[in-house]
Design brief:
Length: 280
């Protein structure tokens, strides 16, 4: 099914996405697009709904309302099919295979791009061995790209924290995504590692993968992103360039936690409860 409004440049188009947990509306009527060659930031205070929105995009959650399309085609609600379609992600809490090597972790990320089936693998057919060699070559390219090639045989759990985050990115890239979702990629990093991650994300964009990134480090976001969307209490409050977002008083109010509802445009009455009666 194609979405007529989508342009050929649009990689991701999310429209009216709403996700509820019982009485809590964690994401409310959020629209967001990411175009080819873009790095888009998603920011907001703790509990604003950023990770929940990512989980809706990747099929981990099924939104109550809204549509999500990748390159004009509605996405399946099954995470492995979303990856196969071209969206890869990293997680806020690192999810590596701790007792596998660095190289093996990246090879796992290749599985959606390997056509050889179970019997081919069990019989170690020539086709399977060729696919295995190609996968390993691509995995090594990605380890070079992310600066992890010399650690290829180290166990993932023995890597320093910053390198584990890089390995998560390498593994996500192994599925050859057109869109990469990064959930707090610099959490726990020192300033030098954060700058290196900034360069890495730019390089990923240069290689043709659009990026949507959640991050609390504002310097990182404003230095890096072409466009920034701000979520507050599940709603998109503002979207624009770094300058637009930084100058918006409602964004400042949301971060400082002023008692007025920052999602209410000036002159309107603030909403205090959601439609289920719960305070968002
Ligand atoms: N599985 C869940 N069940 C119930 N409530 C949830 C669930 N996941 C998230 N929430 C709630 O939804 C709201 C949004 O949470 P979410 O983790 O998406 O926010 P966030 O913007 O990613 O926050 P942070 O920056 O702290 O990671 C919060 O109130 C959270 O408690």
């Amino acid at each position: 099914m194609t979405t007529p409004a989508t342009t050929t440049r649009t990689v991701l188009e999310a429209t009216g996405v709403t996700m509820r947990f019982g009485g809590l509306t964690a994401v409310r009527d959020v629209d967001l697009t990411v175009d080819t060659g873009e790095i888009v930031g998603l920011i907001g205070p703790n509990g604003a709904g950023k990770t929940t929105f990512f989980n809706c995009l990747t099929g981990l959650y099924t939104p109550a309302e809204g549509t999500i399309s990748y390159r004009g085609t509605r996405l399946s609600r099954k995470p492995h099919l979303v990856t196969q379609a071209g969206i890869a992600r990293t997680f806020q809490n690192i999810r590596l295979f701790a007792n596998m090597t660095v190289l093996e972790n990246v090879l796992v990320g290749r599985h959606t791009r390997t056509k050889e089936g179970l019997w081919s693998a069990l019989l170690r057919s020539p086709g399977f061995r060729k696919a295995e060699r190609d996968s390993e070559q691509r995995a090594m390219e990605l380890l070079d790209f992310t600066g992890l090639a010399t650690q290829r045989d180290h166990l993932a759990r023995n890597l320093p924290y910053g390198e584990q985050r890089k390995l998560e990115i390498a593994r996500a890239l192994a599925s050859e995504p057109g869109l990469l979702l990064l959930d707090e990629p610099t959490a726990g990093m020192n300033p030098q590692e954060t700058r290196a991650t900034q360069d890495l994300v730019r390089a990923i964009r240069t290689q043709g993968t659009a990026v949507l990134v959640i991050e609390h480090d504002m310097r990182f976001i404003f230095n890096l992103c072409d466009r920034v969307a701000v979520l507050v209490q599940g709603q998109k409050l503002v979207e624009g360039t770094a300058d637009t977002v930084q100058a918006d008083e409602r964004v400042i109010a949301a971060y400082l936690g002023t008692p007025t509802d920052p999602t209410t445009p000036p002159g309107e009455t603030p909403a205090t409860t959601d439609d289920t009666g719960a305070t968002p």
